[in-house]
Write a structure and sequence with these properties.
Number of strands: 23
Low-confidence stretches: 730-734
Strand content: 15-25%
Mean pLDDT: 88
Largest sheet: 6 strands, mixed
Structural class: alpha+beta
Number of helices: 25
Radius of gyration: 29 Å
C-alpha cells in the first residue's frame, strides 16, 4: 500500500524534463552509459540507464521514474521496519504506515524522489539494511550484507552507518547460537565481496571512452582514487581539520536541518521514540543512535552545499524509530478518575498517537505539495539552456558554471541539439578567484565565437575582454577589447559624450513584487570622467522613485568604445497596475546630464505592471523582500570574542530555482569587512528552498581587534550572473541593522 501511495504522490510531482546541476549530469551519464563525477555511481548509472532507454518516448521522465520507484520501495521498507518495533500486529501495521508517511513528505526525500539523482538509491540501501537488521534470521544476515555491499558500491558514505549496523547484526547472530553460523558468515562475506564487482563498470567504460570518462582508470591506483573521490579528500572532516572554529556552529545546524525536513514537532516525537527504545531495546537503540550520529557528524563536517541531501540515510533511521512511539505508555496521575473518561472516549491512546502523526504528516503535505507541483511544471531550465544553445553562433564555445552546463549537455546528448557548440564547465581550481578563472579560460579559447554564463566586469576587463549580454538568455558574448561597433544608431546622447544605443528589458510584462532585467548598451562619444553614471528607473505615477539601478561608468572607457551591462530592477509591491515607462538618465554627483532636446530622464520602453500571483505572505512593516524570491524577517548581530555573529532569518516566498549568495557587510569607524556565502554556513542552498520555508542563516565575520560600533548591510545576488536581487518593499531600501 505504501508503495502505491508514495508512487502516486511522486508521479503527480515528477519532473519530466531536462534538469540542472548534478541531475543534468546524471541524465547524460545514464543516457550514454558514461562515467559520472567521483565516485562514479556505477550501479545507479546502469539501472537508470536501462530506464532511460525504455520504449516509452520521454527519457527524461523515465529517468525520474526510476527515482520515484526506488523511493516508493524505500517507503515500503521503512513501513515494514517501523512495524517490527510495535507490540501487536494491528498496531504495527498502522504505525509503520505513519512512519513511512513521515519520510515520504519530508522535504529532501520528496525532492529526490521526483528528480534524477543518486540519493534515492542511497536511501533505499539504508532502509534495506535496517529492515534486514531487524529480521533476526539467517536470511536477514545475508540480505543485510548484500545491501551493505551494494550500498557502499553505490556511495561510500553508507560505509559509516552500515558498519555500525553490521556490528549489531554480527553480535546478534552470534548470540543466537544457531547452527551453521560459520557458513552464514562465510556466505555473507562472499555476498559482500561479490557486490563490489559493480566497480568494474568504471574501467570497462573508461576503456571504451564513454562520456565524461577520465581516461586513466586502467590502473588500480587511479581506479581507487576515483572511487574514493580523491579530488574531494580535502572536504572530508573539513570543519574538524581545516576550520575547527566553525565546528560548533556546523553541528548546531542539526535542529534546523531536522525542522527543514520534518517541521517543528515531528523531530521531538522522533527523540521521544528513541528514548522509549533506549529503555525497551537498549542495544538496538544504541546502534541506531550511533549510526544516526556518526553519519550526521560526517555530513555536517563535510564541506559541500548538499548537506541536506547527504544526511538522507540519517533521516531514514529517524523515521524507522518512529515505530517505537506505539510502545509509549501514557499514564494519568489519578487513574481511578481517568478510567471512566478513557472508557467513554471513542479513541484509544494508540489512536491518539497515530492520528497525531497523521495530522503532522498532513500539515507537511499541504505546505509542500504546492511547491513540488510548481517545480514539476517549471520549464525554465530547458528554456534557458535551449535558448542559449540555439542562439549561439556556429562552432562556438560556451563557458558555464555547473548549474548551467549540465542541462545544455543533456540537450545536446539526448535531444541532439546543436552538437557543433562546445559547452565547457569552468570548475574552481586552487586559490585563484573564480571570476578570474572564468576570464582566463575564456581568453585562452580560440573559438570563432565565445560565450559565458557568468560575467564579472572587473575580472573580464583585466583580461582585456568585453562582454555583450544576450537578450532574454543568461549569457554574454565575449570579444577582445576594445569593442567599437554598434548594430544600430544611437537612441540618446547625454552631455554630448554618452551615447545610448539600447535599453532593452527582458520582457514588457512585469509583476508587482517581482523583478526584471534590462540590457543597457552605450558608447563613449568623448572622454568619460570619474563619477559619470547611468540610471535606469521606474517611477510612481506621482513622481516618486519606485525602482532604479545606478550604473557607474568606467572612466577608462575610450572614445568610440562600446560597453554593455545587464542590470536588474525590482517592482514595488504597491506600484499601480497598468502601463509604466522605463526611463534612463545620466549624471555625475548632483549634476543631471541633458540630451540635445534638454531631456534628463527619458522614457525608452513601455512596461505593463501585472499582479504577482506566485508570492505568498502579505508585506509587513520592517520586513524586506528581495523581489518575489525571499524575505528577510529579522537580522541580529552579536560579538563572540573577536568575531561578529550575524543571524539572518529568511522566508522563501516561492520554491527557488536559483543559487543565491547572501552577502553580509559590516562597517564601523574605519572598519569594513564582509562575508559572502551559501545560506546556513553552506548547508542549505537556496536551490533547496520550498515556498514558505524558514531558514536561519549565520555569518561569522572576524573583527581583527575592532571594538567600535558596527552597522551592517545585506545583499543577495545570483551566484551565476552576479546580479543582485532587488528589494521591492520601499523607496531606496538598504537592509541595515
Amino acid at each position: 500500500m505504501l508503495f502505491v501511495v508514495g508512487l502516486g504522490l511522486y508521479l503527480v510531482t515528477l519532473q519530466t524534463d531536462v534538469q540542472a546541476a548534478d541531475s543534468g549530469e546524471f541524465q547524460v551519464v545514464a543516457w550514454m552509459f558514461g562515467i559520472a563525477h567521483p565516485p562514479g555511481y556505477p550501479l545507479f548509472t546502469m539501472l537508470s540507464g536501462l530506464f532511460a532507454h525504455l520504449p516509452f518516448g520521454n527519457p527524461y521522465a523515465q529517468m525520474s521514474l526510476f527515482s520515484a520507484l526506488v523511493s516508493a520501495a524505500t517507503l515500503g521498507l521503512v513501513a515494514a521496519s517501523a512495524s517490527s518495533l510495535a507490540q501487536t500486529t494491528y498496531r504495527s501495521r498502522w504505525m509503520g504506515v505513519a512512519a513511512a508517511l513521515v519520510l515520504a513528505t519530508s522535504t529532501t526525500f520528496w525532492a529526490q524522489a521526483v528528480t534524477v539523482n543518486i540519493r534515492s538509491l542511497t536511501s533505499f540501501f539504508m532502509a534495506l539494511m535496517l529492515w534486514a537488521m531487524l529480521q533476526n534470521s539467517r536470511a536477514g544476515v545475508l540480505v543485510f550484507f548484500t545491501a551493505f555491499g551494494l550500498g557502499v558500491g553505490h556511495h561510500l558514505s553508507l560505509l559509516f552507518p552500515g558498519a555500525v549496523c553490521a556490528v549489531y547484526v554480527l553480535a546478534n547472530w552470534a548470540r543466537q547460537g544457531a547452527a551453521g553460523r560459520v557458513r552464514t558468515l562465510v556466505a555473507a562475506a562472499a555476498l559482500l565481496a561479490a557486490s563490489q564487482l559493480v566497480w568494474l563498470y568504471l574501467p570497462i567504460r573508461d576503456a571504451a571512452n564513454a562520456r565524461f570518462a577520465p581516461g586513466n582508470l586502467n590502473t588500480l591506483a587511479n581506479l581507487l582514487y576515483h572511487i574514493r573521490g580523491g579530488g574531494f579528500e580535502g572536504d572530508m572532516l573539513y570543519f574538524v581539520l581545516k576550520e575547527p572554529q566553525l565546528l560548533w556552529d556546523r553541528l548546531a545546524l542539526l535542529p534546523q536541518l531536522l525542522t527543514f525536513q520534518f517541521g517543528p514537532v515531528l523531530p521531538w516525537l522522533m527523540a521521544l521514540a528513541m528514548a522509549v527504545m533506549l529503555v525497551r531495546r537498549t542495544a538496538l537503540a544504541f546502534t541506531l543512535l550511533m549510526a544516526f550520529a556518526l553519519h550526521l557528524f560526517i555530513t555536517l563536517t563535510y564541506r559541500a552545499p548538499q548537506t541536506v541531501e547527504y544526511a538522507l540515510p540519517a533521516w531514514v533511521i529517524a523515521c524507522v524509530a518512529v515505530g517505537e512511539i506505539t510502545n509509549l505508555k501514557l499514564k494519568m496521575k489519578n487513574e481511578k478518575l481517568a478510567r471512566p473518561l478513557i472508557r467513554n472516549f471513542p479513541f484509544s491512546i494508540f489512536h491518539f498517537k497515530f492520528l497525531l502523526l497523521l495530522a503532522l504528516v498532513g500539515l507537511n503535505l499541504s505546505q509542500r505539495l504546492p511547491s513540488f507541483v510548481a517545480l514539476a511544471r517549471d520549464t525554465r531550465v530547458r528554456e534557458d539552456a535551449q535558448r542559449t544553445l540555439e542562439n549561439a553562433a556556429p562552432n562556438s564555445h560556451i563557458f558555464a558554471q555547473w548549474h548551467q552546463a549540465t542541462p545544455m549537455w543533456a540537450l545536446q546528448s539526448i535531444d541532439g541539439l546543436r552538437p557543433d557548440v562546445t559547452v565547457e564547465y569552468v570548475d574552481p581550481r586552487g586559490g585563484e578567484a573564480y571570476a578570474s578563472q572564468f576570464a582566463r579560460r575564456v581568453a585562452q579559447s580560440t573559438a570563432p565565437a565565445r560565450y559565458t554564463t557568468s560575467h564579472d566586469a572587473a575580472a573580464f576587463a583585466a583580461a582585456n575582454l568585453c562582454a555583450m549580454p544576450q537578450q532574454a538568455i543568461p549569457a554574454w558574448e565575449v570579444f577582445a577589447c576594445p569593442l567599437t561597433s554598434a548594430k544600430s544608431p544611437a537612441l540618446l546622447l547625454f552631455d554630448g559624450r554618452i551615447e545610448i544605443f539600447s535599453v532593452k528589458p527582458d520582457h514588457e510584462a512585469i509583476q508587482q513584487g517581482g523583478r526584471f532585467d534590462v540590457i543597457v548598451i552605450w558608447r563613449a562619444a568623448a572622454g568619460l570622467v570619474d563619477g559619470d553614471s547611468l540610471s535606469v528607473r521606474l517611477m510612481y505615477p506621482d513622481g516618486r522613485l519606485a525602482s532604479n539601478f545606478d550604473l557607474r561608468l568606467d572612466p577608462q572607457q575610450q572614445p568610440g568604445q562600446v560597453q554593455a551591462r545587464r542590470v536588474s530592477l525590482g517592482v514595488p509591491l504597491d506600484l499601480p497596475l497598468g502601463p509604466r515607462p522605463l526611463l534612463i538618465g545620466a549624471y555625475r554627483g548632483g549634476q543631471i546630464f541633458k540630451t540635445p532636446s534638454n531631456g534628463d530622464f527619458v522614457p525608452v520602453e513601455s512596461l505593463h505592471v501585472q499582479p504577482n500571483l506566485s508570492v505568498i505572505a502579505p508585506p509587513s512593516p520592517g520586513i524586506v523582500r528581495f523581489a518575489d524570491q525571499m524575505q528577510l524577517m529579522q537580522a541580529k548581530i552579536e560579538r563572540r570574542d573577536d568575531v561578529a555573529i550575524v543571524d539572518l532569518d529568511w522566508l522563501a516566498l516561492q520554491p527557488l530555482s536559483a543559487d543565491y549568495i547572501v552577502s553580509v557587510r559590516l562597517e564601523g569607524e574605519g572598519f569594513f569587512k564582509s562575508h559572502d556565502g551559501v545560506p546556513a554556513l553552506g548547508a542549505i542552498p537556496t536551490l533547496k528552498w520550498l515556498g514558505g520555508v524558514s531558514i536561519r542563516d549565520r555569518h561569522l565575520i572576524p573583527l581583527g581587534g575592532y571594538r567600535g560600533p558596527l552597522r551592517g548591510r545585506v545583499i543577495v545576488y545570483d551566484a551565476a550572473t552576479g546580479l543582485p536581487v532587488p528589494k521591492v518593499t520601499g523607496d531606496g531600501l538598504n537592509v541595515e541593522f
